[in-house]
Write a structure and sequence with these properties.
InterPro entries: TM_pro_TauE-like, TSUP/Inactive_protease-like. Keywords: Cell membrane, Membrane, Transmembrane, Transmembrane helix. The chain crosses the membrane at residues 41-59, 71-89, 95-112, 132-162, 168-186, 198-218. This protein has eleven helices and no strands. By secondary structure, the protein is an all-alpha fold. The protein has one domain (3-241). The protein is globular, with a radius of gyration of 16 Å.
């Protein structure tokens, strides 16, 4: 894959994901997978990008008044330690490709707006439900090297616990915390730094900052969503069938 194409994809993905409160890990993994970048190279970089982009999204949505501590605390209590543990068991080979390919179905569905519709009225989050979902989603996030926001957002909306904007704010902080836990967990593992890592980091952070700003102010980008969903669908098919 042309290096310039990777740069463009990372910028667009970070812009798009940050606009809905996500860090973009699943998208970055899709691009790196298509480009043939090895897992040891992109694994820590993906988490680092996730941290910076989700932090930017969190600050923008919080500033806009959409963040609620009581909505996210129950999830974090169990997700952070479970993400740390999950990151200790990195999947490799065919099993990793299959699970990651299946995980990409979630962001593709979100990009195409095929997920759950927003409830008119939000319900109170039961503590036990938050703890259980947090543990499961946190472990999955650590295992798959993502922040878990692609799983949390649909849950919050489907269960009627948050509006779309509240979900975006909560997911951004959820991703931030789980990505930090995952990165700390793998710090002792050896990994390689790609020659273009700093360029990839810069463009992803720039796109994330802009996306978070526009997303928190009701910015819409329907055409871009469809194009990026198509790119990710190709990566998903590559992981699952080739």
């Amino acid at each position: 894959m042309n290096p310039d194409f990777i740069v463009v994809c990372l910028f667009c993905l970070s812009f798009l994901y940050a606009s809905v409160g996500h860090g973009g890990a699943s998208g970055y993994i899709a691009v790196f997978s298509l480009a043939g970048v090895s897992v040891p190279v992109y694994r820590p970089l993906v988490l680092l990008l996730n941290i910076v982009v989700s932090a930017s999204a969190f600050l923008q949505f919080k500033k806009a008044g959409y963040f609620k501590w009581k909505l996210i605390i129950p999830f974090l209590i169990t997700s952070i330690p479970c993400a740390f543990v999950g990151a200790k068991f990195p999947l490799k080979g065919e099993v990793y490709n299959i699970l990651l390919g299946l995980a990409l179905v979630f962001p593709i569905a979100r990009l195409l707006q095929l997920g759950p519709t927003e409830k008119k009225q939000s319900k109170e989050l039961p503590l036990i439900s938050g703890l259980i979902f947090g543990a499961v989603l946190g472990f999955a996030a650590g295992l798959l090297n993502i922040g878990g926001g692609i799983f949390l957002s649909p849950v919050l909306i489907l269960m009627g616990w948050a509006s779309s904007k509240q979900s975006a704010a909560a997911s951004a902080f959820f991703i931030l915390c789980n990505s930090i836990a995952g990165l700390i967990s793998i710090k002792s593992q050896s990994f390689f730094v790609a020659e273009n890592s700093w360029i990839w980091f810069f463009v992803a952070v720039s796109g994330g900052f802009l996306g978070a700003y526009f997303g928190s102010n009701l910015y819409r980008q329907k055409t871009v969503r469809y194009v990026l969903a198509s790119v990710m669908a190709v990566a998903c098919a590559k992981l699952l069938f080739f």
